[in-house]
Design brief:
The chain is of the alpha/beta class. It has twelve helices and 26 strands. The strands form six sheets. Strands 2, 16, 17, 18, 20, 21, 24 and 26 form an eight-stranded antiparallel beta sheet that branches. A hairpin with a 5-residue loop joins strand 22 and strand 23. The longest helix is centred in the middle third of the chain and has 19 residues.
């Protein structure tokens, strides 16, 4: 346990101190109760529902926030899937190895039934690439009929990557670009809306801007939408591309990266719709070597908060092929390290968090945040030290201090998320803990004791010491 004085640094320079705003500053943003949500790969969704860890992990996050995470069912395989009303199982496909994703599949009414049982509201992804409007419309109608938790329907996933011989492109006869895709989306939305209403999630793009699609849809197209979705992966592991953990987890880097979404979020909100990072995680193509690490868990904390500060209403962290997924939160036999970051940022936001503010200037390795209640009172502080420690040499630390606390003396409690180093992995036996010894079993049940540290308050000020590659919550 650490006994400390809480000092909040904007910069990581010794002796720097700031004053905690007594109410949310003008830069503060409201947070959705399901800010951190989950995307489940389409073909794998029924398999996820069979895992005890799925329900337990989602329940754990929901308990910390007071609302369940929202669920998006989709991904690459939604555009390979054809609805079959006569199918007796949820999905049907053949793969050479359980680690593979199918090139084609069918799904039936049981798939929709499973989706209807999810506790959070659900965005359902359906196929547009194969240009089988009849099948996708039948699935959409059944979802509308059976799913009380249905939030929105996607029609197509990352259409910028459709092959030139994709049926939807061939049928159009005019080639394929963002404007052509937007016209296709709009046409399908209009056809479907008479049966299911205006409940669509638009764009669903990675390299094309969601704002560009929204503009091409026009005001009448935007009126058909519940939400606008952009996909976001800061790095790529595709085709042997190299990834970089210090770059991923860098606080300054995260601040810079997420600023690109502010204008899209503003455009969506001006149109009266929600703006989501509807599929996101650390790196494309499963995540490579960086994604299962403690550094990625710290990235999740910072990334979620920066997303919210740039107007993102929800971030849906993608979970891919079960047990062949470096960035997944859980699998068949383990809870993976990134989940600890998801749980920790959820604990910081809490059931009572209404607005968040960044208190540092975004240019250093140390991020400092405050969460405020609906009554505009500061509730908790979070310090995330993204200085990279790989387990060699001496682990540095940073003293972060703040003045302006409402209490002049006494103590506050703090909760620490730590691991041996930034590359630590739970699935390789590393001790990743919250509050000294708390962790999660392979089924995502809580294990161990989550203990807090005592921090002294003097003269309306306190300080903490946070090691490199570590995070801390202070309860005000």
């Amino acid at each position: 346990m650490h006994t400390t004085i809480l000092t909040l640094f904007f910069c990581v320079s010794i002796g720097t101190a700031i004053t905690l705003p007594s109410s949310p500053p003008s830069s503060a943003r409201s947070v959705d109760p399901s800010l951190l949500s989950v995307s489940l790969e389409f073909f794998a969704f029924p398999g996820y529902t069979a895992l005890a860890a799925t329900e337990n992990c989602l329940n754990n996050l929901g308990a910390l926030r007071g609302a369940p995470p929202a669920i998006r069912i989709g991904g690459t395989t939604q555009d390979r899937a054809t609805y079959d009303a006569s199918l007796g199982s949820a999905v049907n496909y053949t793969v050479a190895s359980p680690a593979d994703a199918p090139d084609s599949l069918t799904f039936g009414p049981q798939f929709i039934s499973l989706a209807s049982q999810m506790k959070g509201n659900v965005t359902l992804g359906l196929n547009r690439q194969l240009n089988n409007q009849t099948a996708s419309l039948a699935a959409a109608k059944l979802a509308k009929q059976k799913m009380d938790n249905l939030f929105a329907i996607e029609l197509g996933n990352e259409p910028e990557f459709y092959a030139s011989d994709s049926p939807i492109i061939v049928a159009g006869g005019v080639g394929w670009n963002q404007n052509v895709d937007a016209a296709s989306e709009k046409s399908w939305f209009q056809t479907f809306s008479s049966s299911v209403g205006n409940i669509f999630q638009g764009a669903v793009t990675l390299s094309w801007t969601a704002g560009g699609t929204l503009s091409s849809l026009g005001s009448d197209g935007a009126a058909l939408l519940k939400s606008l979705s952009r996909h976001s992966y800061p790095q790529s592991a595709c085709g042997g591309a190299s990834t970089n953990l210090p770059s991923l987890m860098s606080h300054a880097g995260i601040v810079s990266y997420t600023q690109q979404y502010a204008s899209e979020a503003a455009a969506a909100h001006a149109a009266g719709i929600k703006y989501f990072l509807g599929e996101t995680n650390s790196a494309t193509c499963g995540g490579g070597g960086i994604s299962p690490t403690f550094g990625a868990a710290l990235w999740i904390i910072d990334y979620v908060l920066q997303g919210a500060l740039n107007g993102v209403d929800r971030l849906y962290f993608h979970q891919g092929t079960i047990s062949n997924c470096a960035y997944c939160f859980w699998g068949q036999s383990s809870i993976f390290t990134p989940f600890y970051g998801a749980a920790f940022v959820s604990e910081f936001l809490g059931t009572d968090g209404s607005k968040i503010a960044m208190l540092d200037d975004g240019t250093s390795a140390v991020g400092v945040y405050a969460v405020y209640s609906s009554a505009n009172k500061p509730l908790r502080l979070l310090v995330v030290n993204t200085n990279y420690f790989d387990g060699t040499g001496t682990r540095s630390n940073t003293t972060v201090s703040v003045t302006g606390l409402t209490t002049s003396s006494g103590t506050k409690q703090a909760l620490r998320l730590t691991a041996p180093n930034a590359t630590s992995r739970v699935d390789e036996g590393a001790a990743v803990t919250i509050g000294g010894s708390a962790s999660f079993t392979s089924s995502c049940a809580r294990s161990g004791t989550q203990a807090t540290e005592t921090t002294s308050v003097s003269g309306h000020a306190l300080s903490v010491v946070v090691s490199a590659s570590e995070a801390l919550i202070v309860f005000l």
